[in-house]
Design brief:
12 helices; TIM Barrel; globular; alpha/beta; eight-stranded parallel sheet; two-stranded parallel ribbon
Length: 339
């Protein structure tokens, strides 16, 4: 099992560097950054500084999207980060939510997401690529042939299939064991149907955590199921009720969301905020399912269950204000059980 951390983009540079060095020394494998350039500062300047102050930790956006940057600009940026880090850069990508909807644009189609993934891998590898909007093929002579790992964030059946076809890994933004198993199985099946060898395919589960008292943990993390609900509401609407394309647990969750009127609007200005009004409908039970809270032993037990369900990386969303304490608690009480 790999372990990662994710930054929101609102911490001072020196603190981000210190936490990355703390995580690297503790045995974490990845430092990811939210890519939502309006809600928070752009991620890449801080990522570049953190790269220069670490030696082993891998970095990447969790997640970027095909909509907010012109594709040659995005590929040049990713290739530059790969060169600067000496091969410690992965791309996490989705259709686009908080970075896209907040500026009034619609998320990318699944077809556009797939095209973006293929184009980014080829451009970073140094190949000539023709893509929509570019009148001439684009090619970088300086990338060094880097084979950039691509992780695709997905919930719904079409995006999960795309993740299996074009991704090296799947990003699941929740830590519910059953849902992680189902989503990973869907992506792997799609890859096999495409003729891919999926033996080394990776699945990342992302969620905020709280090590300690259950009630405090629920208060610290209940914003997260609301974020998930906002992501999956349209998927359930189009693919869920009355079908076998989306698990019943998700359709029931979204039905509850709609039942209290939470589907009438999602406030992106409270995206990931601890006291978010978006989470009014979230129950303690859902919070426990989607997040990882409780004493350290409960974290080990749940991550073991995620591992058995096919998850290969657990990624902690560091949004609670006690970032250093969470990294230290995992270093002392959780990671040793997986090393």
């Amino acid at each position: 099992m790999e372990f990662g951390i994710t930054f929101r983009g609102d911490l001072p540079k020196d603190r981000v560097v210190a936490i990355c060095r703390q995580a690297e020394a503790a045995g974490f494998d990845y430092a990811w950054f939210f890519d939502s350039h309006v809600l928070w500062r752009d991620l890449y300047p801080q990522m570049a500084v953190a790269i220069e102050n670490t030696r082993r930790l891998r970095f990447g956006p969790c997640v970027t999207n095909p909509m907010t940057r012109e594709w040659s600009v995005a590929a040049s940026l990713f290739a530059a980060m790969a060169v600067q880090s000496e091969g410690r850069f992965d791309m996490g990508v989705g259709r686009g939510d908080s970075a896209v909807r907040v500026i009034g644009k619609r998320p990318a189609t699944v077809a556009r997401l797939e095209e973006f993934c293929r184009a980014m891998k080829a451009l970073v590898r140094g190949e000539a690529v023709s893509y929509e909007g570019a009148p001439e093929p684009v090619r970088f002579d300086w990338t060094g042939g880097y084979e950039m790992p691509v992780w695709v964030a997905a919930y719904g059946p079409r995006a999960l299939a795309a993740a299996g076809r074009v991704g090296d890994g799947l990003i699941v933004q929740l830590a519910d064991v059953g849902l992680c198993r189902w989503m990973g199985d869907q992506a792997r099946a799609a890859g096999r149907a495409e003729g891919r060898d999926m033996a080394d395919y990776r699945v990342m589960a992302c969620a905020p955590v709280w090590v300690g008292d259950r009630e405090a943990g629920i208060a610290q993390t209940k914003w997260f199921p609301a974020l998930v609900g906002n992501h999956v509401a349209d998927i359930v609407k189009h693919h869920g009720a009355g079908t076998d394309l989306v698990p019943e647990s998700l359709t029931a969750y979204i039905a509850r969301r709609e039942g209290v009127g939470a589907d009438e609007g999602y406030d992106y200005r409270q995206h990931t905020a601890l006291d978010s009004d978006n989470s009014a409908y979230v129950t303690p039970e859902i919070t426990e399912d989607f997040c990882v809270i409780g004493p350290a032993g409960a974290h080990v037990e749940k991550i073991r269950a995620l591992e058995a369900a096919g998850v290969t990386q657990f990624n902690i969303y560091l949004t609670n204000g006690g970032e250093e304490q969470i990294v230290a608690a995992y270093a002392d009480h959780v990671l040793p059980h997986f090393r």
